[in-house]
Amino acid sequence: MICPNCDGRARRSHHRGLLELAFKSISAYKPYRCADCGWRGWATHIKPVNRKEIVKSVIFWCAALIIALAIGVYAVVDLRSTLNPQPAPAVSK
Ligand SMILES: [Zn+2]
Questions:
Q1: What is the whole-number distance in angstroms between the Cα of residue 12 and the centre of ligand 1?
Q2: pLDDT band at 92 (very low <50, low <70, confident <90, very high)
Q3: Which ranges of 1-93 would DSSP assign to H, the alpha helix?
Q4: Of 41, 72, 81, 89, which one has the greatest count of Cβ atoms within 10 A?
């Protein structure tokens, strides 16, 4: 990793205490230390997600949710009409 302070090479650092161990274990962030300038900080190797991909994903899941809701509403309406059939109109002679 490139050191954000001096552009030197920062290497993984050991955790300091249980709090850092817990944070390191549950997050993608890991501690780093620069041997050149002494900088110590947290960084992740996970690439930042492309904003276009996020928008595409949000649109996809919104459309899927709308379709699922429409199918659910249709199923409930259909079930109600099945359970409560409309009386047949009286035939007049
Ligand atoms: Zn540095």
A1: 13
A2: low
A3: 17-26, 51-83
A4: 41
Query: Does residue 20 sit within a domain?
Result: yes
Phi and psi for 5 in degrees, rounded to 5?
A: -90, -45
User: From the CA of 17, how far away is ligand 1's center (Å)?
Assistant: 23
**Position 64, amino acid:** A
What distance in angstroms lies between residue 32's CA and the mean position of ligand 1's atoms?
Answer: 10
72-86 pLDDT tens trace: 999 998 888 888 777
Residues 39 and 53 in one domain: no
Whether 4 is in a domain gets the answer no
pLDDT at 30: 93
What digits encode the pLDDT tens for the residues 18-59?
999 999 988 889 999 999 999 999 998 766 678 898 899 999
Alpha carbon of 33 to ligand 1 centroid (Å): 8
Measure 1 CA to ligand 1 centroid, in angstroms: 10
| Residue 23 forms part of a structural domain | yes
Answer whether residue 65 is part of any domain: yes
Virtual torsion, Cα 46, 48, 53, 59, nearest 10 deg: 100
Domain total in the chain: 2
Predicted TM-score (pTM) of the model is 0.49
